[in-house]
Design brief:
This protein is of the alpha+beta class and 279 residues long. The protein contains 6 helices and 16 strands. The protein is 22% helix and 32% strand. The longest helix is centred in the N-terminal third of the chain and has 29 residues, at 2-30. The structure holds 2-acetamido-2-deoxy-beta-D-glucopyranose (NAG) (2 copies). It is found in: Plastid, Chloroplast stroma.
Length: 279
C-alpha cells in the first residue's frame, strides 16, 4: 500500500500542477479588460459545454430541458389564433451603453415601457446583442441577434428577439455607433466601469415589424440559463452592416467576440406562430 502511494506521488504532483495551471487559465479567461469578472466564456474550458459545471448556480445550463436558443423550423411551427400582437409601449428613455463583459447592451433608467403578453405587463429592462445569431430559422444562422428583455412584477421574463442579416446599416444601431467606439477605447484603457450614458434614445425603431413572431418557452441564453422565459422571435429579419457587427464586437475580449450559445434540444417543445396576415 505504502509503495503504491509512493508510486502515485509524482502523478499526484503533476495533477496539482495541472490544476493550478487551470486555475490561472480560468482567472485569465474570466478577467475582462474593464475589470469585471465573467465566470463563463464562449470558448475553451469555460465554454458553453461546461457552463453547467462552473458554478452550482449554473446547473440548469446542463440539466434544463427548456433551454435556448433553438432552431425554429417554420413548417413545424403551429399557428395559434389565440396569440395576440406583441403590444409594446416603449417610451423615449435615457439609455446607458454597457459592456457586460460577455456582450454589449443598453440599460434604461426609470420606466421605459412595457411589453404586454397575454394581458400581463412585463417592464422593459435592457437589451443586448449577440453575434452571430443564437436562434436559427430553418437551419440558417444570421449575422446578429438583439434581445429585448422584459420582467414582470413577479419576476417572469419575456424576451423579444430580432434577427439581422448582413446588408444595410440598422438605423437604431447607427445612433450608437460612435459610442460603441468610445466603449471599445474605454475597455482598452482598463476603466473599472465601462458604462457610457447616451441620453434619450427613441425606441420607436424597435417597435416595427411585429406582425409575425414565433413563441416558445425557453431560457436565458447565458448562465444561469434560467428557464420559463417567454420567447418571441420576430419573423421579419432586419439588416445590419458588417461595420456595425464589428463595432458590437470591438469592446469585447477575445473569448466573447463570438457570443452565441450553441443550439439546444427542443425536448418535445412546440413553437407557436402568430401571423397577423393569415386568415
Ligand atoms: C395559444 O395561445 C394561448 C395564449 O397565449 C395559450 O393560452 C394557448 O395555450 C396556446 N395554444 C397552444 C395550442 O399552444
Ligand atoms: C400595463 O401597461 C399599460 C401600458 O403602459 C398600462 O396602461 C396599464 O395600466 C398597465 N397595467 C398594469 C396592471 O400595470
Amino acid at each position: 500500500m505504502r509503495a503504491h502511494l509512493q508510486n502515485m506521488a509524482p502523478q499526484l504532483s503533476s495533477f496539482i500542477s495541472i490544476a493550478l495551471l487551470f486555475a490561472v487559465a480560468f482567472a485569465n479567461f474570466g478577467q475582462q479588460a474593464h475589470g469585471s469578472v465573467v465566470e463563463f466564456s464562449y470558448a475553451g474550458l469555460r465554454g458553453p459545454a461546461n457552463w453547467g459545471n462552473l458554478n452550482p448556480k449554473f446547473s440548469t445550463c446542463s440539466s434544463g430541458k427548456l433551454q435556448s436558443p433553438i432552431n425554429i423550423i417554420k413548417n413545424e411551427a403551429v399557428e395559434n389564433k389565440s396569440l395576440t400582437p406583441l403590444t409594446r409601449v416603449y417610451k423615449r428613455g435615457n439609455a446607458i451603453l454597457v459592456n457586460n463583459g460577455f456582450n454589449i447592451g443598453l440599460r434604461y433608467e426609470g420606466n421605459c415601457g412595457v411589453l404586454i403578453v397575454d394581458g400581463k405587463n412585463y417592464t422593459f429592462k435592457q437589451m443586448h446583442w449577440h453575434s452571430p445569431s443564437e436562434h436559427h430559422i430553418d437551419g440558417v444562422q444570421y449575422a446578429a441577434e438583439l434581445h429585448l428583455v422584459h420582467l414582470s412584477d413577479s419576476g417572469a421574463i419575456a424576451v423579444v428577439s430580432m434577427l439581422y442579416e448582413l446588408g444595410d446599416a440598422d438605423p437604431f444601431i447607427s445612433k450608437i455607433t460612435n459610442k460603441l467606439g468610445d466603449l471599445a477605447k474605454d475597455a482598452y484603457a482598463g476603466n473599472e466601469e465601462a458604462h457610457i450614458p447616451i441620453g434619450p434614445l427613441d425606441n420607436k425603431l424597435l417597435r416595427k415589424n411585429t406582425r409575425k413572431y414565433y413563441r416558445y418557452i425557453g431560457s436565458i441564453t447565458s448562465p444561469p440559463c434560467t428557464e420559463n422565459v417567454i420567447w418571441n422571435v420576430l419573423g421579419k429579419v432586419r439588416t445590419i452592416s458588417k461595420e456595425q457587427v464589428e463595432a458590437l464586437k470591438a469592446p469585447l475580449g477575445a473569448d466573447y467576440k463570438q457570443n452565441s450559445r450553441p443550439l439546444q434540444s427542443l425536448n418535445g417543445r412546440k413553437v407557436e406562430l402568430y401571423n397577423e396576415f393569415s386568415d
